[in-house]
Design a protein that fits this description.
This protein is an alpha/beta fold. It has helices at about 10-15, 25-40, 55-65, 80-90, 105-110, 115-130, 150-160, 175-190, 210-220, 240-250, 265-275, 300-305, 335-345, 350-365, 370-380, 425-435, 480-505; strands at about 5, 5-10, 45, 70-75, 95-100, 135-140, 165-170, 200-205, 225, 255-260, 390-395, 405-410, 415-425, 445-450, 460-470, 470-480. It is globular, with a radius of gyration of 24 Å. The two termini are about 45 Å apart.
């Protein structure tokens, strides 16, 4: 059976990062783009260059560094956005401008354009984009709620103006799989020039059907899937990259398509995106969830021992999960740590290894066995030299006899500051102490603790989400001491809030970008 190639267009750094609280730092974006490039993603949508100076810088730098992937930037339907986008992607070996406009009745009402005025705008802006770049993608936002005749009309205009990819977004996650397949099929049959372009599918997951809709669109004739790692994205998120890639791989018998993605790199990028965005991956998430390959019940374990295929349709190694391996301990040396890191897909330069080795020894002193997940938690600790706030020391007093207190020393912008505070429990006392040393308007929206491995000496991963004047930032950290992990996660969230403050004035966030300027 011959199989057709389906292009993978990853929008983790644009649609994913647009999700409230998922802000990533500049360095994190570069690292994730490098991983996507390395694993065979065809197109990386690296950001929305007009949205902020930070977005422009990230797209520009990713364009400079990309080796294999096409680097794409998003632009609304106006010349200023398109020119800024063209400038941002210029250094890429292969660059793409993705311009869009909301075509459904509800979206047309925002800029208050008639159907004819909008059609003219599409013609002008796609023509302008095409004059600046050979590779232009056009999207009718909310396509799945746009009148059929108008949708065909505007797609034809965009193709005639030079669009090379036509993306059909299900912006609000409203479509069902049979409609998704039928829509793409009918568009390809109906719109003049459709055979000369690639049709793409971009599905949101509001009804939990994004992956099914994307695959159905491929069956209908789409040859590009837009998706994000871990399904990150606004509201219920986007189609998950790892799900469509593995579905096409495992069910090639009924879906004769293939992608260029190296599936053994899925687990690693999932963890990196989770840490960078601060969004934990749900335990039962398909492909990359902690439980996706674990078999707890007796009957399952019995079946697995006899024949793995009894309960497994893909092998853990296929998605980058190493088989059971020996834990490290306090006698393990640098070479053992390096070998372990290599096996987990984290090759490191000598200076990075030295730093990690110190932290590994510290952990091994406190914990008898250091498992793979502990090592990954250590690697993904996201304290950086740019951090404004750092934890120096923390001592808490807790138990049945109150008051619970925290004695805390922070390094704030290079200067040490100490305080002792009370609270309703040790975590509350610690957060109060941080707030007294560094007053801020961040309101706690989420505080979540997970054990990384089994046992009472397990490391705890803590996630903290703060909201300040509409800006949201999520921090994460891990430590065998839950209160220390909590303090570090809280500081990480504040450090990200500070980055966010620099990125936008209140109310001027990427999410609040004004669609009247389509
Ligand atoms: O969901 C959507 O419609 C989008 C467009 C910008 C393509 O993300
Ligand atoms: Zn979207």
């Amino acid at each position: 059976m011959t199989k057709d190639r389906v292009l993978i267009f990853d929008t983790t750094l644009r649609d994913g990062e647009q999700s409230p609280g998922a802000t990533m730092t500049h360095d994190e974006k570069l690292e994730i783009a490098e991983l996507l490039d390395d694993m065979g993603v065809d197109i990386i949508e690296a950001g929305f260059p007009i949205a902020s100076e930070g977005d422009f810088r990230a797209v520009h730098e990713i364009a400079k560094r990309s080796k294999n992937s096409t680097i794409c930037g998003l632009a609304r339907a106006n010349f200023k956005d398109i020119e800024r986008c063209a400038e941002a992607i210029r250094p890429a070996g292969s660059g793409r401008i993705h311009t869009f406009i909301g075509t459904s009745p509800l979206h047309r009402a925002i800029p208050n354009l008639t159907m004819d005025e909008m059609a003219d705008r599409i013609h002008e802006t796609v023509t302008h984009a095409r004059n600046l770049c050979d590779n232009v993608q056009w999207s009718p936002m909310d396509a799945t709620r746009t009148e059929w005749d108008y949708l065909c009309r505007v797609i034809e205009i965009a193709i005639k103006a030079g669009a090379t990819t036509i993306n059909i977004p299900d912006t609000v996650g409203y479509t069902a799989p049979m409609e998704s397949a039928d829509l793409i099929k009918r568009l390809i049959e109906t719109v003049p020039g459709a055979d000369d372009v690639i049709f793409a599918t971009h599905c949101h997951n509001d009804l939990g059907m994004a992956t099914a809709n994307a695959l159905a669109a491929v069956a209908g004739g789409a040859r590009q899937i837009e998706c994000t790692v871990n399904g990150l994205g606004e509201r219920a998120g986007n189609t998950a990259l790892e799900e469509v890639v593995m579905a096409l791989k495992v069910r090639g018998d009924i879906m004769p398509f293939y992608t260029n993605v190296e599936t053994t790199k899925l687990m690693n990028i999932s963890r990196r995106v989770s840490t960078a965005s601060g969004f934990p991956v749900q335990f039962n998430k398909a492909i990359v969830g902690k439980n996706a390959f674990s078999h707890e019940s007796g009957i399952h374990q019995d079946g697995m021992l006899k024949n793995k295929e009894t309960f497994e349709i893909m092998r853990p190694e296929d998605v980058g999960l190493a088989g059971t391996s020996l834990p490290l301990g306090k006698h393990s040396g640098r070479a053992a740590l390096r070998a372990k890191l290599d096996s987990l897909g984290h090759s490191m330069a000598d200076n990075q290894l030295n730093d990690l080795f110190v932290r590994f020894k510290d952990l091994a002193d406190r914990k008898k066995e250091v498992f793979d997940d502990d090592i990954i938690a250590l690697v993904t600790q996201n304290e950086t030299v740019e951090d404004h706030l750092k934890l120096k020391s923390l001592r808490v007093v807790c138990g049945t006899e109150g008051p619970q207190t925290a004695e805390l020393t922070l390094v704030v912008g290079g200067e040490e500051k100490s305080i002792k505070s009370n609270g309703d429990g040790p975590v509350d006392a610690t957060f109060n102490a941080i707030k007294e040393i560094f007053p801020h308007g961040g309101r706690l929206q989420l505080y979540q603790v997970h054990a990384v491995t089994e046992g009472t000496d397990a490391q705890a991963t803590v996630s903290v989400r703060l909201e300040e004047q509409g800006r949201i930032a999520t921090g994460q950290s891990a430590d065998t001491d839950t209160v220390v992990a909590s303090a570090k996660a809280y500081l990480n969230a504040i450090n990200r809030l500070i980055v966010r403050r620099e990125k936008s004035a209140p109310g001027e966030d990427v999410k609040e970008i004004n669609y009247k300027d389509i």
